[in-house]
Write a structure and sequence with these properties.
- There is one protein chain.
- The protein has 378 residues and is mainly alpha-helical.
- It has two domains: 8-238, Rhopdopsin 7-helix transmembrane proteins; 251-376, Arc Repressor Mutant, subunit A, CATH 1.10.10.60.
- The protein has helices at 8-28, 35-59, 80-92, 107-123, 134-172, 182-208, 219-238, 263-279, 289-295, 300-310, 315-331, 341-347, 353-364, 368-376.
- α1 (8-28) runs antiparallel to α2, α2 packs antiparallel against α3 and α3 packs parallel to α5 (134-172).
Length: 378
């Protein structure tokens, strides 16, 4: 009869493994537009689940009843960083092609698996577990430190890529808030903090305790990593697809048409501003940099340069300022007194109550209610 001794941590980690594998398969077979990104995220979830499974196999002595399971590699920790990075990469750049070399990022993981197999082949003639070999005692702490450092490095690159993506969105879409990934920034912050604490803890174990701390001393970190990976997969799975109003997102990589500096650029800026005001283009709730450029029969990069350098603002700031001024004008007009704030906002190009309130307060330092009251009581 098999008797397994569970404690609260091993029970929670066991549950996390089941939940993680479930969401991993949901991501693999998801119908999202970002299927490629979801598969990398599924790889992250599976990797964490397998890592925790290897912990349970050793801690609960499951290998005593299934001896063959100890020869199966369960730890692919050096793949976590690259998988997380490429998840964000594919999530934020829809024109990423298969020509980009991905496999070199996973060479360290292949070396890790190779070292595991060497440990197994050394252990078999000695009738030992691979974790009882001298090679394991030398290699395991090094691999763990490298895995954490890899996660920290790729995590920093991931955050930098998200911020770069946010900047691009802000320059190309007036309603840029709908495309932002603030939830991913929050999760990555928690994730990087856990990695830093884990690295310090691991170094203390190696230096002060000669790497003799048992699995139970690392339970909180494994459980924390499981929670973050599941949290990330749940957020990714339930979030609606980001549908861009323009299908071609390669405009940022095209070559700018050359414009004469200073005078001509200023003239172009005044002309563009006049076109926006005259045709009230800002009232279009789906207005983007590309659609504006198409309306004005210009290249998107030229339009972007005129707005950024000629007007000295980003595209979103330029359009949203017009929309706020249009709202203020209507709030000051008695004929709109019976209209709701949301109706006025939608008529002026906003398509979200949250975005409208945020943008209006940004430019007026007042809420719409406060602004209307200030008109009645100067």
């Amino acid at each position: 009869m098999i008797n397994l001794s569970f404690n609260i941590y091993t029970l929670l980690i066991s549950l996390s493994v089941v939940i993680a594998i479930t969401f991993g398969f949901l991501l693999v077979f998801s119908s999202h537009a970002t299927k490629r990104a979801d598969r990398f995220l599924a790889a992250v979830v599976f990797t964490v689940a397998f890592w925790n499974s290897s912990l349970l196999i050793l801690e609960l002595d499951i290998y005593q009843f299934m001896i063959g399971i100890i020869w199966i590699p369960f730890t692919y920790t050096l793949a976590l960083g690259p998988c997380l990075y490429f998840y964000v990469k594919y999530l934020t750049i829809t024109d990423l092609t298969l020509k980009q070399k991905i496999w070199p990022h996973f060479i360290p993981m292949l070396i890790q698996v190779g070292l595991f197999l060497v440990q197994v082949f050394i252990a078999i003639p000695q009738a030992k577990g691979y974790f009882q070999t001298q090679l394991f005692k030398v290699v395991d702490p090094i691999v763990n430190v490298l895995a954490i450092l890899s996660l920290l490095i790729y995590g920093c690159f991931t955050r930098a890529h998200i911020f770069k993506y946010h900047q691009w969105v802000q320059e190309n879409y007036s309603h840029y808030h709908r495309y932002q990934l603030n939830w991913l920034i929050r999760l990555s912050s928690v994730f990087l903090l856990l990695m830093v604490v884990w690295l310090v803890y691991l170094l203390v174990d190696y230096v002060m305790f000669d790497y003799q701390l048992t699995f139970k001393h690392y339970y909180p970190f494994h459980l924390g990593l499981a929670v973050i990976s599941i949290w990330l997969s749940v957020e990714a799975y339930i979030k609606p697809d980001i549908i861009y109003s323009d299908t071609d997102l390669k405009i940022v990589e095209q070559t700018d048409d050359q414009l004469e500096p200073d005078k001509e650029l200023q003239e172009q800026a005044l002309w563009l501003k006049n076109q926006i005001e005259k045709n009230r283009l800002y009232l279009d709730p789906e207005l983007s940099l590309k659609s504006l450029a198409s309306t004005l029969d210009m290249h998107p990069n030229v339009t972007s340069r005129i707005i950024n350098e000629g007007l000295g603002v980003t595209f979103s700031d330029c359009i949203n300022e017009y929309r706020v001024n249009a709202v203020k004008q209507r709030l000051s007009d008695p004929s709109y007194e019976n209209d709701t704030f949301l109706a006025i906002a939608f008529d002026c190009g906003f398509n979200s109550k949250t975005t409208f309130n945020r943008i209006f307060k940004k430019y007026c330092s007042k809420t719409p209610i406060q602004f209307r009251k200030s008109l009645k009581n100067p």
